[in-house]
C-alpha cells in the first residue's frame, strides 16, 4: 500500500491528475455548447430544407432507418459488399422518405461535414452514419451531432452527456456549423481542436 502512496506523491502523477481534471472541466463546459449548438444545427437544417424544398418545419418523420436515406455507395463507409449484396442495405433498402424530409436531412448533414470533400483520404470522408439513427433525427438533435463523431466507440452513446472529451472535440471539429463558436480558424490543419486532440493522445 505504501508503494501506491509513493506513486501518488510523485510530481508526474500529480501532473497527470491535474491534466485529467482540467480535461474533465473543459469537457463539462464544452458539453453545454455542443448541446445548445446541436439544437441550433437542427433548426438551421430544417430552415434550409424549408427554403429549398418547401417542407415545413413542423413536418417530422420517425420511420426512416439510416440505410433508407443513405444511398448505397462504398464511399459512405457503411456499405460493404458480401456475396454480391450490401450488408448495410440488406434489411433496409435505399428509398425516398414518405415525408420527403429525411433524404434532404441526410444531404444537409453531409453539407455541414468539414471533410465531405471526396479529394480527402477515404478514412476522412464525410459523416459517420454507423453512429446515428435517422428515425430519431427529428426528435433528438444529438443523433445528428453523432454523425460528426469518429467511427469507433460511439454507436451506443445516445446522449451528449455520455460522450467523452475526445468525442465532444470531434463534433466541434468535424461539423463546420460549430466554427461560429471559435475565434480560431478550424479550417487550418493546426487549430485549437487538433492541438487538444493531439495533447490528449500524448
Automatic annotation (TrEMBL):
InterPro entries: DUF4559
Top-level taxon of origin: Eukaryota
Organism for this UniProt entry: Dreissena polymorpha (Zebra mussel)
Pfam families: DUF4559 (PF15112)
Protein name: Uncharacterized protein
Amino acid at each position: 500500500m505504501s508503494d501506491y502512496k509513493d506513486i501518488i506523491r510523485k510530481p508526474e502523477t500529480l501532473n497527470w491528475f491535474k491534466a485529467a481534471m482540467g480535461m474533465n472541466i473543459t469537457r463539462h463546459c464544452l458539453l453545454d455548447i455542443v448541446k445548445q449548438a446541436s439544437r441550433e444545427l437542427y433548426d438551421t437544417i430544417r430552415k434550409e430544407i424549408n427554403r429549398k424544398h418547401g417542407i415545413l418545419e413542423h413536418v417530422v418523420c420517425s420511420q426512416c432507418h439510416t440505410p433508407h436515406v443513405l444511398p448505397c455507395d462504398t464511399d459512405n463507409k457503411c456499405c460493404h459488399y458480401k456475396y454480391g449484396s450490401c450488408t448495410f442495405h440488406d434489411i433496409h433498402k435505399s428509398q425516398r422518405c414518405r415525408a420527403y424530409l429525411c433524404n434532404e436531412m441526410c444531404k444537409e448533414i453531409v453539407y455541414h461535414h468539414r471533410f465531405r470533400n471526396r479529394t480527402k483520404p477515404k478514412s476522412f470522408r464525410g459523416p459517420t452514419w454507423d453512429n446515428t439513427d435517422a428515425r430519431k433525427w427529428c426528435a433528438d438533435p444529438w443523433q445528428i451531432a453523432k454523425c460528426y463523431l469518429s467511427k469507433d466507440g460511439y454507436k451506443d452513446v445516445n446522449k451528449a452527456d455520455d460522450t467523452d472529451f475526445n468525442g465532444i472535440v470531434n463534433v466541434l471539429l468535424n461539423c463546420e456549423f460549430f466554427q461560429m463558436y471559435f475565434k480560431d480558424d478550424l479550417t487550418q490543419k493546426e487549430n485549437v481542436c487538433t492541438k487538444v486532440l493531439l495533447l490528449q493522445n500524448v
